[in-house]
Design brief:
By secondary structure, the protein is mainly alpha-helical. A two-stranded parallel sheet has the order 1-2. The longest helix has 30 residues.
Length: about 240
């Protein structure tokens, strides 16, 4: 219990996010400056997530989204504030009883009730923000559909025969970084992306999961359960929101 709640901190994080929708746009790593010095011919590293997040299409969509989805942001902010107000007296009472060193028999039910309400609130806010998350996933998927060709084009232009993931490289000069070249190729292949997904659209990983389930069952894909919210892929780059 020592790590519990300071005035519904988890909801406070959500509230701060919806209060400043522009801040939710991905902050992509800056393009590396090429370094001088000897390089191994044909070898490069590339961060494909960063390449996608640095594209003109991704950046433009991130700037447009707060305007296009303003009603969603506004409604979510109102609801988050209402939940925060609902939780505050419960949290205050728990903290007061804990300060008064009341027994666990008193504190534990309070703690469990607050925790359950926070979890329910988190799921509710995520459902409300789902159109925004789907929009981002849709933009990312459109760009990623051209990623393979962009990488091939970048390798050809830089005369690269082997591309490594930066995570498996302990250290490298910036001159090995193919990421900015991949981004430039993506900008040529897909200058803009559609912001709003078609009705009923689901991210690729969900479509593939349904297809796999159908193949295993030997039948057609099962329809989504009523009221269920699809899982949206993680953002491609930038800081991730902290958990409770």
């Amino acid at each position: 219990m020592k790590t519990l709640l300071k005035s519904a901190a988890a909801l406070g994080l959500v509230l701060a996010a919806v209060a400043a929708p522009a801040a939710m746009a991905q902050t992509a790593p800056a393009a590396a400056t090429p370094a001088t010095g000897p390089l191994v011919p044909g070898l490069a590293i590339a961060n494909f997530d960063a390449a996608v997040a640095n594209t003109d299409a991704f950046r433009a969509a991130a700037q447009q989204r707060p305007t296009t989805y303003k009603p969603v942001y506004d409604q979510t902010q109102v609801r988050a504030r209402a939940i925060e107000a609902e939780l505050k007296p419960l949290v205050d009472r728990f903290n007061a009883d804990r300060t008064a060193k009341k027994p666990d028999a008193v504190l534990q039910p309070q703690y469990q009730a607050i925790q359950a309400r926070q979890e329910a609130a988190k799921e509710e806010i995520q459902r409300m923000m789902l159109p925004i998350a789907l929009s981002e996933a849709y933009v990312v998927e459109q760009i990623e559909n051209r990623l393979d060709q962009a990488v091939r084009n970048a390798m050809t232009k830089r005369k690269i025969s082997l591309v490594l993931n930066p995570q498996v490289v302990m250290a490298a000069q910036n001159g090995y970084d193919l990421t900015p070249t991949v981004t430039a190729e993506l900008n040529l292949l897909i200058p803009t992306a559609q912001l709003v997904p078609p009705a009923g659209w689901e991210p690729r990983q969900i479509r593939e999961a349904r297809a796999q389930q159908a193949a295993q069952a030997g039948g057609a894909p099962a329809p989504a359960a009523a009221g269920s919210a699809p899982v949206v892929p993680r953002p491609v780059a930038g800081p991730q929101p902290e958990g409770r």
